[in-house]
Specification:
This protein is an alpha+beta fold. A hairpin with a 3-residue loop joins strand 11 and strand 12. The chain is globular.
Length: 268
């Protein structure tokens, strides 16, 4: 048995060597993080620089919850998960396999705003998560354009044995200014004034990675960010109702005014 200790938590627990070695291997495979052994101090440690990336920490959080749930029914009174579940997540494992091995994918796709579905053949690039929904980032062979496909709208998925040549596409760069998966609109500097209470929430769960605080008073918190002004972002701002005010740009102010006017007309 190994005896493990955490500096930031007053906890010591026993860990079977076989289980520990297996989990070490899984962590390296899944997250690319190597747990190093210090022979002098007889301790195991992870270089914190390796886990600064937010996507890695999100994956580690999910992995930790999964491992906790594996403990069995004794945890069920203590862990309550969101009952809503995004459809299509059963495809993730197979899609990742296709991405890693450069296999073409074929499927039927149904857009939310269209009554008909279309057949697609794509070169898969990556899986992206946004607001508890999962998307496939892929090159559509129909017009050689990289698109995002919601996994909840994919059906008749076929994993082909046809390979494609790798091509350059930087997912992180292409989505760096996106809120979610939409990038069709130009990225602009946005300044938002939140009520103090809502602002404290936005501090702990930023709207975007570029978010920074520009001013703070007893009543308001003002944030600045550089982001694509898309439908998804506008819908997010509307969710905060009278707890947020757009200060710039003017185009976004006009859009918010029009949306609010349309909402008010529904109740006249």
């Amino acid at each position: 048995m190994h005896k493990l200790e955490q500096d930031d938590i007053d906890t010591t627990f026993e860990y079977a060597i076989r289980t520990f070695e297996r989990d070490k291997k899984d962590i390296t495979t899944l997250f690319g993080i190597v747990i190093q052994y210090n022979r002098k101090e007889k301790t195991y440690a992870i270089d914190e620089a390796e886990i600064e990336d937010q996507s890695v920490t999100r994956m580690i959080d999910a992995f930790s919850i999964h491992q906790a749930l594996q403990e069995g029914n004794k945890l069920s009174p203590s862990v309550f998960l969101e009952k809503r579940k995004s459809l299509g997540t059963e495809h993730i494992h197979g899609i990742i396999h296709a991405i890693q091995n450069l296999y073409l994918l074929q499927f039927t796709y149904q857009k939310h705003w269209e009554d008909f579905s279309t057949k697609r053949e794509v070169k898969p690039i990556a899986i992206k998560e946004s607001q508890q929904r999962w998307y496939l980032v892929a090159l559509d062979k129909k017009n050689d354009v990289v698109k995002t496909f919601g996994l909840d709208r994919i059906s008749n998925l076929k994993f082909t044995d046809t390979k494609f040549k790798p091509f350059a596409y930087n997912v992180e760069k292409e989505f760096q200014h996106a809120f979610g998966v939409e990038t069709y609109s130009t990225a602009e500097k946005v300044v938002l004034e939140f009520s103090k209470q809502q602002g404290n929430y936005i501090k702990t769960f930023p709207l975007h990675e570029s978010q920074s605080i520009t001013s703070e008073t007893g009543d308001f918190v003002t944030f600045e960010m550089y982001i694509n002004l898309t439908h998804d972002f506008i819908m997010e701002l509307l969710r905060y109702a009278n707890n947020v005010k757009v200060l710039t740009p003017e185009s976004l102010i006009a859009t918010m005014k029009e949306r609010i006017k349309q909402m008010a007309n529904l109740y006249q």
